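FORM 12-B: Structure-to-Sequence Request
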């Protein structure tokens, strides 16, 4: 359906070559970009409650509410969601090296990571 609309607008734009057709095409292009941006941002859609439940494995080092129990472990509470997602994925891929975090992150799905990040980002 979307393909048919795009084809029709492009055909009309090139056939008429008018300013209004170009405006319609520009508006359509913008709408497609907004639609695609919404799809990529769904990667970061997450469930805070599920993240809280999953965070039990983090308590020992990062504390029950994301405040570290020792100075060698970072606080997670209040960190930015995108930052936490990227760091967990970096541990999982091996880009960041830490035996404990690498092992833990291997057991996490992308959804688990998004949920954990949402939970810790929600804590202030």
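FORM 12-B RESPONSE
SEQUENCE OUT:
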């Amino acid at each position: 359906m979307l393909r048919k609309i795009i084809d029709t607008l492009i055909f009309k734009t090139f056939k008429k070559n008018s300013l209004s057709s170009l405006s319609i095409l520009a508006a359509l292009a913008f709408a497609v970009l907004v639609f695609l941006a919404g799809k990529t941002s769904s990667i970061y859609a997450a469930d805070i409650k599920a993240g809280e439940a999953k965070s039990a494995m983090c308590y020992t080092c990062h504390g029950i509410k994301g405040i570290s129990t020792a100075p060698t472990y970072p606080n997670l509470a209040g960190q930015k969601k995108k930052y936490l997602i990227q760091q967990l994925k970096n541990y999982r891929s091996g880009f960041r090296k830490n035996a404990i975090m690498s092992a833990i992150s291997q057991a996490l799905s992308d959804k688990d990571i998004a949920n954990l990040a949402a939970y810790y980002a929600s804590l202030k």
